[in-house]
Amino acid sequence: MANRTGALEQPAAARAHSASLWGDAWRRLIRNRLAVVGGVIVLILLFLLFFGPLIAPHEYWHQYLKEVVANGNRPLPPLSPNFILGTDNLGRDLLSRLMDGAQISMTVALVVQAVVLLIGLPVGAAAAWYGGRVDSLLMRFTDVIYAFPDLIFIILLTVSLRDTAIGEAMNGVLLVFVAIGVVGWVGMARLVRGQLLSLKETEFVEAARAIGVSDFRIVTRHLLPNALGPMIVSVTLGIPGAILAEATLAYLGIGAQPPKASWGILVADGQQFVRSEPFLVVIPAVAIALALLSFTFLGDGLRDALDPKLKGKQ
Amino acid sequence: MTVSDDRGGVGSPTVTELPNAVTIATEEGRLLAERLADSGRHARRLLEVRNLSTQFVTDQGVVHAVDDVSFELDYGETLGLVGESGCGKSVTALSLTRLVATPPGRIVSGEIIFDGIDILKLSEEEMRLLRGRKIGFIFQDPMTSLNPTLPIGFQIAESARLHLGLSRKAADDRTAELLAKVGIPRARERMGDYPHQFSGGMRQRVMIAIALACDPMLLLADEPTTALDVTIQAQILDLIRSLSAEFGTAVILITHDLGIAAGMCNRINVMYAGRIVETGMVDDIFEQPKMPYAWGLLDSLPRLDEERGARLRTIEGLPPDLVNPGPECRFSPRCKYVHDRCRVEEPELSAREGEGHLARCFGTEPGGWIK
């Protein structure tokens, strides 16, 4: 912070070495090969989120019916000219549809985790900081949400809010994402509460109080940064669950509607032809699995990198 | 409020508004708000503690951790609070800043008049204005009292920005200046470093910089050197002494080490079992202590002129349970000179020879049995 403004006489190399906690964590992370692979795939997916439609070889909804008819009314198999991963039974390019689906899956990942943080973090933080009755009340509420069957809750929420503004945003997809987040924040709330409960007894909190820092600021500036490691890990590891939940819902017909292609929809559509054209199921399934694994590896890597207890072991 | 110029070129920032838009709710708060603006003397003494009692509710009952404690502190004076573990030293200090964890703790009665303001009447919000601004606190263990995820520069600047309303730039300048003052070399560059990049002694210097960031009138040092080795201890104490002299800060030094107290303090309060049992100028306490507990403490100091291999002397027994203390002198179970009277009645603090020298002992009162 300071060296940005002031004296930087020290050579850059020496400076770089006395890096922060985050610098340390970063060095440990990039030494973890699986995490790096996962991270790279996640970056590719993120790239697709923003630029997928621009670089896709075809429009995801365009039906190349002539080619399908020429192929004896069967989907073009992978490695066909022009269609690297083949087409579906309606002649739509599978690669383009996968890339479009990546957009939905990544949006799911981000929106769901944002909702999870937005609800889970304040609930957990308030429960831990105020303790006593507030804590019991919030945590029992959390238990209730936890005990409610997720799928029913999501479906109820989606159906009952269908005609509101949020229900119509992004063709109703956003609502599904928010609904997944609304049932998924319980773990985050418990995590944050647990972290803060132990942190709030530390002496540096007392020291912060002794210089007159307000409660809100103690929680946000002093406590949360200390809990950030586990939170980042939880967010990363929660993403596969969210992607899977979206795929499940799409498979059930909730959420993205045709011709939009989410990975779940691709699996559901391909399923009809699983005997004759197994690649229509296998390819999107592999994409889902790959994304999940990547996030999991990245999450594992982050956990190890951010855990101070592992310092020096790697 | 202005930071005086002799402390370096912070550029005398003037503050017109209270930080964080604190609502002033009480009469004492209004008084405080007026006084925060300058560092003049508003009362006869900086601190007057009267009949302070702090209790903790536990499963075993109510612990009378600080029981009817009264003392005074002059502007710029250094006062030692000495006594063994659990005698109420730290709770006294925490009570002065109202940092006693509530529940289970509670300040049940008394008055704490700081610079003419009864701080027990302030609202919690108003209290926040006082903490760090007028009262600095140095904690015992520098290894755990700094936030490991924030650069030390941030932690020092936080107090100055909060209370003095300094801009980021001005706060950075002030931080660099403070770091240099507490003897951290290359202060500017080290502001961005994290606590784990400093040694224990260096961290305690950072803690001192934090405590002094707003030029407080009172510095509470709760065993500031207990976690440090002896050579570092001496450096840190020198630092506290010289800075408090330079800034004119009054210090309450809490320690169980009488050697430290003797070297640092003008006056000493000896505490035992939640009570002050003897108080006086440092010379009186060391040359003519008038309470068997103080003798015991002094006697248990290892001495250089002693035969090698001689056993260290201790005070036999343990401090009493502070749940429902009886009417007797609290030291009587461990006292070598105990008489029947001590077991049924507790002596009051009464005058002894020497300025402000008071002791709580029947035996050393005029006509007492201890010579």
Tally of individual helices of chain B = 11
Instruction: Please give the most extensive interface between any two protein chains, plus how many residues each contributes.
Output: A-B, 29 and 45 residues
Order of helices and strands of chain B: HEEEHEEHEHHHHEHEHEEHHEE
| Oligomer classification | heterodimer
- Count of distinct strands of chain A: 0
Strand content of chain A: under 5%
Mean pLDDT, all residues of chain A: 80
Q: Low-confidence parts of chain A lasting 5 or more residues at pLDDT below 50?
A: 1-18
One letter per element, helices H and strands E, the order of chain A comes to: HHHHHHHHHHHHHHH
Strand content of chain B: 15-25%
- Characterize the largest beta sheet of chain B: strand count, sense, and whether it forms a barrel: 8 strands, mixed
- Based on CA atoms alone, the radius of gyration of chain B comes out at 22 Å
| C-alpha termini separation of chain B | 54 Å
Low-confidence region ranges of chain B: 1-16
Shape of chain B: globular
Helix content of chain B: 25-40%
How many distinct helices of chain A? 15
Structural class of chain A: mainly alpha
Largest beta-sheet characterization of chain A? none
The whole-number mean of residue pLDDT values of chain B reads 83
Biggest sheet of chain B: strands side by side, in what order? 6-7-8-3-9-10-12-11
Structure description:
The complex is a heterodimer of chains A (314) and B (371). Chain A is mainly alpha-helical and 314 residues long. Chain A has 15 helices and no strands. Chain B is α/β, with parallel strands linked by helices and 371 residues long. In chain B, a hairpin with a 2-residue loop joins strand 9 and strand 10. The longest helix of chain B is centred in the middle third of the chain and has 18 residues. The N terminus of chain B is likely disordered. Classes of the chains: A mainly alpha (314), B alpha/beta (371). Chains A and B meet through helix 1, helix 12 and helix 13 of A and helix 3, helix 4, helix 5, helix 6 and helix 7 of B.
